[in-house]
Specification:
Order of helices and strands: H
Number of strands: 0
Strand content: under 5%
Number of helices: 1
Largest sheet: none
Shape: flat
Helix content: 40-55%
Distance between the termini: 16 Å
Length: 40
């Protein structure tokens, strides 16, 4: 099993609502990733 933890800086200009919207927008990309069992 391979576990990867990725972190990245987030601009202080972004609020929680904007970040949530972006995460929800990109989530479907990972649902179809072959071999990906879980993404938090």
């Amino acid at each position: 099993m391979i576990i990867v933890l990725v972190t990245f800086p987030i601009s202080s200009e972004l609020d929680a609502a904007s970040l949530k919207d972006k995460f929800l927008e990109t989530a479907p990309i990972y649902r179809e990733a072959p071999g990906l069992l879980r993404k938090n």
